[in-house]
Amino acid sequence: MKRLLDSDLELVVESNFIYLPLLFDLEIEKEIQTIFRPGKQIENSVQPDLKTIIKLKEKYFIKALNLYSLLENYEVINAYDYKRLRNDCLLKYQLTGEVDGIFLDETLRIILFQVMPHFIRKNRGLIRKKLSDEEIMDLINKKINIPGKYHKNAETFQDVEPLRKILESLENQTHSFKPPENGILTGRKLRDWVHDAVQVNVLKGEHLRIAKALKTRKQFSQAKPEHIATLLYIADTRALEIDGFGFTRNNSYKGEYFVYKRTKEYVLKDYYARSYLFPECRVAVSTYSPYKPFVIEKYKHPFLLGHKTGQEICMKDFVPPNEFKAENVIRTLEEGLTAMRYGYNGRKRNGYHSLDKMWVHIPTIDFEDYRI
Q1: Hey, how many other C-beta atoms are within 10 angstroms of the C-beta on 267?
Q2: 99-126: per-residue pLDDT in tens?
Q3: SS3 assignment for the chain
């Protein structure tokens, strides 16, 4: 079917049916001549008003496929093309799954406007100035170079008129497509019609989401375009980092994130006061319980049991919170960072591992490569 629709082969549309060119051999030619002798009619027991074979411009065509059946089954007939058409249609109106959800994501709002301001440098001097949501978005725009395509998408997002017209048409049941006119057309012309019809069907199927999207976008109609562009960028990349503070999407749980802060390099001392330089790592907490601090990268440390990714930090007296709130995220991150950078006591060797090798050596993680 794909080859047929991508070709210049002449087809015929008649009463919502596609007729394909009839290939001849000697036996078929004899039968055709018999069928089309004067006064002879071709019978169709299912639909007597439709001919099985028709003749146009001295060419014969045989009935093959109902146009509407083609549309109803197009997702199965040509799954790749259908997916591409659907994505193009939704992208055209910024209706992809993440776009509108990002504007109503309360978890993300807490991270952006309550947690992030605590960890990033907002102004010079010792006084911490509390910023409004708009000022925080301005700050993000200054620190992050948002690609131009997101600014174009922001224009599309804020132009609600196309969506309003689509919704109005759908509600009035006038947003439909007409079948091609009867007669000869090429496979490419039929393909263009199919593509337009598929996109109309996609919009019909998205009726409820279009209504929700329109309501959401009206709420942000007065927002700065650059702020919209930033949120669209986050929706697409699923991550953001500023001044060592960041978040990234938790792929295991929809709508959840890992929130993290980088430690930078730091030094720990062993029993003999020898120094060990530890590389930077990201201490993180999930927005999905349990709310315990962990290290994202493959990493070794006296407070980490192994040398692998995603390890929880051992903190003896830490009681993890049981609720996702900004203050809980901030406290958990700060305690995790403090434990990594300052919690190890070389004299007490208080951890899963000791920086220095003990006389009675038990196989453990080795830190000699960190010693300076």
Answers
A1: 11
A2: 777 787 899 999 999 999 999 876 655 5
A3: CHHHHCCCCEEEEECCEEEEECCCCHHHHHHHHHHCCCCCCCCCCCCCCCCCEEEECCEEEEEEEEHHHHHHCHHHHCHHHHHHHHHHHHHHCCCCHHHHHHHCCHHHHHHHHHHHHHHCCCCCCCCCCCCCHHHHHHHHHHHCCCCHHHHHHHHHHHCCHHHHHHHHHHHCCCCCCCCCCCEEEEHHHHHHHHHHHHHHHHHHHCHHHHHHHHHHHHHCCCCCHHHHHHHHHHHHHCEEEECCEEEEECCCCCCCEEEEEECCCEEEECCCCCEEEECCCEEEEECCCCCCCEECCCECCCCCCCCECCEECCCCCCCCCCCCCHHHHHHHHHHHHHHHHHCCCCCCCCCCCCCCCCCCCCCCCCCHHHEC
Interacting residues of 4 by C-beta distance below 8 A, sequence separation 6+: 11, 20, 187
- Name residue, tokens 């830490």: 318
The model's pLDDT over 301-340, given as tens digits with 9 standing for 90+, comes to 999 999 999 999 999 889 999 899 999 999 999 999 999 9
Digit-coded pLDDT (tens) for 234-252:
988 889 999 999 999 998 8
- CB count within 10 Å of CB 307 equals 13
CA distance 279 to 267: 9
